[in-house]
Amino acid sequence: MRFFVTGEQNRQSLINTIVLLFLGYIALLWISNGMMYFHKMGLHPESVLEYYLGSEEHFTQPKSYQSLLEVTHFHLFSMGLLVLTLSHLLLFTPLAARLKIWLAGLTYLSAIADEAAGWLVRFVHPGFAWFKIGAFVTLEFSLFALLVMVSASLVVQRMMMQKSERTRAAPAGSVEHRA
User: Fold this and answer.
1) Using CA atoms, how far apart are residues 113 and 107, in angstroms rounded to an integer?
2) Which residue from 35, 58, 48 is spatially nearest to 129, judged by alpha carbons?
3) Which domain holds residue 148?
4) What pTM was computed for the model?
5) Is residue 73 part of a domain?
6) What was the pLDDT predicted at 5?
7) DSSP 55
8) What pLDDT does residue 179 have?
9) Domain count, the chain
10) Is residue 173 part of a domain?
11) What value does the CA radius of gyration of the chain take, rounded to a whole number of Å?
């Protein structure tokens, strides 16, 4: 009874809808992140090296310390919030705790690795181009996994709520109510 008096059934549906809309927005961010990466580089080390170290053939300069610092500064904040939010939403899924920890940890580590990789290519050794590619691919897959798992959990939860509402709304003698 408290559930209906306080309006929690409506709040649950509203929160569910808002989170699903947020996840749709994040899916667009995920797509644009991939598009931006592939606009600058590919999944081969030569393209990563050309982007970070410059190219005489294409008349491009190496990435400067300041430009890497500016991008890193923004990405550490924004990616940190994104991963925190998605990891927090993951807590409310019915997945095993071990899987949640593993997936959240992988996402954090790959986000940090993706940021660090550009610095390593530019200022340590060109061999880190493979690390950059691996970090990017791992980040994209782990973000995608978070999006899918949280979205699927919410959709299933929403379907169960609707089924429960239909069962409660059915007349006492109906077949649907007895099930």
Assistant:
1) 10
2) 48
3) 8-167
4) 0.83
5) yes
6) 43
7) B
8) 47
9) 1
10) no
11) 22
